[in-house]
């Protein structure tokens, strides 16, 4: 099948390469010429495990091309819209500028029978509005909303073998459903469940799923706050409640909380949209979810002050990990970068290291200091902060770090280390939610 993928960022680039691996012919379109140049050379413009290999193989088939010209989407039968929907400046709402611009630019190149498939995360009501625009301007072209559930760091596997497909289709959606079934034939044959529903339900499934995940994280972080005042241990608490199959242990890792280009902006956009719909009470709890999440960052900064005698001014602070989670170079709304920036504002000499995130972090916070190795970051440190739990930081040997630091103080922002190991090596170990 001939497909176009419009928007080749974290979602679209992976989607394009994966669709080729399923046997389709794909043109990827993006307005960013640098991104398109890298992709056309077979280079992944961001870090995502498995993507470089997949891209090289896909380029080798001759069935993957990239362009900045939306006219090159003409001829494809299915057009995936994967552009960004960031938070609007000065508001909680989603900025739909890119979705609207991409669909408007695509319409002149559509033919009757073509299917536009929205994959971006949008406020409920967006699909119906775009469907009306498409129907008015290209009779016979169709729209489906097929939200994406991939996680960065596992994007390739999540795209090829998702937990489920959700198709939001119009009332007589059989043609749209048949086209999507052809696109995803391989995973469907392997038994992946698919839910065919209306636009509004499909849009809500996506924000409901992310809201649930964010709520689960903030729930355990609220318990961490209680553990801190009672002397209890949030990691053991999570293990214990997680053994109840109805609760489950996944997404109960307490620590610095959630960041990234999705959970924070999605819960805020959900609240903003519910407000517009007069249903703000229904998701009012998300305000608390957001507030608990922000408080964890503040608590980490306070802990850094506490272990430094009340002030970090003039102190050398090593920050291990700056991305919003391991196995990604993404620093959008990164809790780690936020904490590092707050400490720098308080006068600390912050030395940041990260395996993949330094370039992106430097673009956002050029005034902070970035170094390539743990040895450089921790040299002479008054405190070491583990803020993103990359494997190499989880595996650090305290005896090795002892040689570099000025004070053996470690703050584990992700509950990723074994306190007994660090204490046995003579370190003062502090964490969020456990003693
Ligand atoms: N990053 C992720 O893990 C996931 C993201 N999503 C959703 O997917 C959407 C995209 O997210 P990301 O890929 O992370 O964003 P991103 O910012 O990495 O990529 C968006 C891309 O769209 C391009 N673009 C903007 N306007 C365009 C236009 N008019 N025509 C063509 N290209 C255009 C940008 O240049 C950029 O490369 C968002 O709605 C997000 O919430 C959903 C699931 C997972
Ligand atoms: O809509 C999206 O874009 C995606 O958002 C999240 O995926 P992602 O942002 O890649 O990352 P997650 O693995 O969900 O982690 C999000 C944040 O929560 C934090 N987290 C996660 C799990 C946990 O137990 N504790 C915790 O603090 C992570 O450190 C990270 O900062 C969802 O997991 C995906 O299903 C969804 O498709």
From TrEMBL:
Active site: 262 (nucleophile)
Catalysed reaction equations from the record: UDP-alpha-D-glucose + 2 NAD(+) + H2O = UDP-alpha-D-glucuronate + 2 NADH + 3 H(+)
Residues binding substrate, per UniProt: 149-152, 206, 251-255, 259, 325
Span of domain UDP-glucose/GDP-mannose dehydrogenase C-terminal: 318-419
Biological processes per GO annotation: polysaccharide biosynthetic process; UDP-glucuronate biosynthetic process
Biochemical pathway: Nucleotide-sugar biosynthesis; UDP-alpha-D-glucuronate biosynthesis; UDP-alpha-D-glucuronate from UDP-alpha-D-glucose: step 1/1
Keyword Phosphoprotein part of the UniProt annotation: no
UniProt-listed Pfam families: UDPG_MGDP_dh (PF00984), UDPG_MGDP_dh_C (PF03720), UDPG_MGDP_dh_N (PF03721)
Superkingdom to which the source organism belongs: Bacteria
Annotated NAD(+) binding sites: 30, 35, 85, 121, 152, 265, 332
Keywords recorded for this protein, A-Z: NAD, Oxidoreductase
EC number: 1.1.1.22
MF-aspect GO terms: NAD binding; UDP-glucose 6-dehydrogenase activity
Enzyme class: oxidoreductase
Similarity remark: Belongs to the UDP-glucose/GDP-mannose dehydrogenase family.
Protein name, entry field: UDP-glucose 6-dehydrogenase
